[in-house]
Amino acid sequence: MAKTNGQVEVQDLLKDETGGEIAVASTGVAYTETYLCKKNVNYAFEYQFSSGGAIDCKIEIEQGNTPPATEGAASANMVVPEDAVDFDESITDNTLHVKAYAPAVTRFLRAKITGQGSNAATTKLVKFNVSTVVNL
To answer: Which among 4, 64, 73 has a CA at the least distance from the CA of 33?
Structure first.
């Protein structure tokens, strides 16, 4: 469920499908819930990892005009847009990150999280929020 504060809306993309966290063990791949994009807004993304060992993950923003057939699974309907700016190629800490990012114009987006290198088997994505504010 989205939370609003005036014109700012925050949507938690982990809460409904995963109980609030997603395992990204070793070099595994995981996906957040799909988000229905809004028109005429600016976007910011808030994310954080937790682990009993090393964290080494990459986040990409996948987009498409048709939602995935199955939430949490790879889908030909969702891709990283061509010429998209890298979202975050290497997260190696458990601090909170907030990133402004301008998605391509599509109906849906979600995050694809990939463990890489020395990423521990206990690594989890514990926060992934999409914040929007209306362009005036």
So the answer is: 73
Measured at the alpha carbon of residue 87, what is the angle toward residues 31 and 60, in degrees to the nearest 5?
25
From CA 92, how far away is CA 129, in angstroms rounded?
19
Question: 3-class SS at 16?
Answer: helix
**Contact between 65 and 38 (Cβ < 8 Å):** no
DSSP code per residue over 70-127: STTS--TT-BPPTTPPPSEEEE-S-S-EEEE----S-SEEEEEEEE-TT--TT-EEEE
Instruction: Supply φ then ψ for residue 16, to 5 degrees.
Output: -70, -45
Note the pTM of the prediction, 2 decimals.
0.90
Residues 88-118: pLDDT tens digits? 999 999 999 999 999 999 999 999 999 999 9
